[in-house]
Specification:
Oligomer: single chain
Strand content: 5-15%
Strand order of the largest sheet: 5-6-10-9
Number of helices: 4
Distance between the termini: 92 Å
Radius of gyration: 29 Å
Number of strands: 10
Largest sheet: 4 strands, mixed
Order of helices and strands: HHEEEEEEEEHHEE
Shape: elongated
């Protein structure tokens, strides 16, 4: 009988401990869940940029992915940049035909590849001043005469894009505006042979000079993509001018992005000083420590 009573007491004590643990967990959980409510009440940023501020603008649209209730993008409260995409393909169009390539330059873009891009034309300020004629509204040969040649000259217009047309910050004076822009159809770019290229496909223009980078881009080594991993699956490709400003690339190849705040430290950790130790730092090798070249002795 005594053993039975003792076992009942043990069971009762264990039940009390379990119930108290559950109550403590519930209280701590309710306290932790109060913080996200304040974050949810914050007004979301609705206008942000994807990769280059001012030229890759996107507006948040709610419930674009109704299956999960996600918006098309989530914008950062700190930087104004896109944090993540609820629908990576929202607002995209087919990339279109790509130039013929060798086996080693095709990369993952092959016949049948479901590649999409976000069109660049809606991001161009002057292109959209006239929604029907675009740049040709002024550059029609009458209002603005067609140039007789592509010799560099001082331009009075569009100085917000190119401050000094005689000091073009691209190509180190090897070419000028009309080596890329069509002289008679300002709604298009041109290649080396004068073939017209859409502003939505700047990679066809950039690739005519930047061949190595273009091959890397097609291989997926350079640039950004989102989408399916499977071969032939749908992917969104970022094109050249989404990241690089072609008119200032000589002085600033890529505008640095403001970083997001550091994540919160784990519970119980007062600081992250351990990351500043020699073990955690990535030091560049000094010239004095570099191995000598056996052929030259330097």
């Amino acid at each position: 009988m005594k053993k039975v009573k003792l076992s009942k007491l043990y069971i009762l004590a264990a039940s009390c401990v379990l119930l108290s643990s559950l109550l403590i967990y519930k209280l701590s959980y309710s306290q932790n869940t109060e913080q996200p409510k304040t974050q949810q009440n914050e007004q979301p940023v609705t206008d942000c940029f994807e990769s280059r501020e001012g030229y890759t603008s996107v507006t948040r649209v709610e419930n674009v992915a109704p299956k999960h209730g996600f918006p098309n993008v989530k914008c950062s409260q700190t930087t104004g940049g896109v944090l993540w995409w609820g629908d990576a393909y929202d607002g995209t169009i087919p990339m279109g035909e790509m130039p013929i390539c060798g086996d080693y330059t095709c990369g993952s873009y092959e016949k049948g590849e479901d590649a999409v891009v976000r069109p660049r034309e809606p991001q161009l300020k002057y292109f959209n001043l006239n929604p029907e004629q675009h740049c040709a509204f002024c550059h029609n040969g009458k209002m603005v005469p067609f140039p007789k040649n592509k010799k560099p000259r001082l331009l009075a217009a569009h100085q917000d894009i190119v401050a000094d047309s005689l000091q073009l910050m691209h190509g180190r004076a090897a070419f000028w505006c009309l080596d890329c822009h069509s002289a008679t159809n300002r709604n298009r770019l041109i290649d080396h042979w004068g073939n017209e290229i859409s502003f939505n496909q700047p990679q066809k223009l950039c690739g005519k000079c930047h061949g190595e980078v273009y091959i890397d881009w097609r291989m997926g080594i350079h640039g950004k993509r989102t989408g399916m991993w499977v071969k032939g699956g749908k992917k969104r490709w970022w094109v050249c001018t989404e990241c690089h400003n072609p008119h200032t690339v000589q002085t600033n190849r890529f505008n640095p992005l403001k970083p997001e705040p550091a994540p919160a430290l784990p519970k119980g950790m007062k600081n992250a000083d351990h990351e500043q130790s020699e073990h955690g730092l990535h030091k560049e090798p000094s010239l004095s420590s570099a191995p000598a070249n056996p052929s030259t002795g330097h």
